Amino acid sequence: MSERAEKTQSALWENIKVIIQALLLAMVIRTVFFQPFTIPSGSMMPTLLVGDYIFVNKFSYGYSKYSLPFSPNLFEGRIFESAPERGDIVVFRFPPNPKIDYIKRLVGLPGDRIQVIDGVLNINGQPVPRAEDGAFTSDYRMDPGTDVPVFRETMDNGVTYQTLDQAPDTRGDNTREFIVPEGHYFMMGDNRDNSLDSRFDVGFVPAENLIGRASVIFFSLGNDTSFREIWKWPANMRWDRLFKVVE
Question: Most buried of the four, 36, 55, 106, 168, by CB within 10 Å?
Fold first, then answer.
């Protein structure tokens, strides 16, 4: 083999090693620390919008089998577990079909009594304080939401956030009382009249199903712009949402 051929082969092998190392590093980061997630629906408006791309902190609650690619059944429950707090925005596996990821706000801890009465969230018999906080108009064509009333809720631990109330007397505005079982959580979307959550098919979410806490928006495209439509980015980028901390 000539000296040139040996150098070419050596350079090729070095490039392959760099690529493999980069892929392994990306896999470790995604598995252990942060996972990218795209907001697929309007259920978390106005906090999270369709077209937001966020990082999910997987270290925040520890790890379960759902933290790993393909969810191998290597262990039960969670390791390095840390309990979530009321008001966290959580990515979790949909209990009836754990292949599907959901994102909602955690409003009920184990042992809590949760009920919605006339559109007001009640926790353990006490209404969560809420105040009018303007109006919201969406740029998402499937959920136009023009001048939807916004209400700011404040939890007993000081967590505060905005919710939408699109219409009075919807089926989620008055519910039975839910008692959250041990080892489970109760989730609701901030878009209260347009969210399939623990009031409905989601039910109570087992601790094992938690993936992580939404931490930051790193990219955001409005007006139903696809990530692949690069030529539309300048006109449809939500510049004010880039690197915004999720609350």
Answer: 106
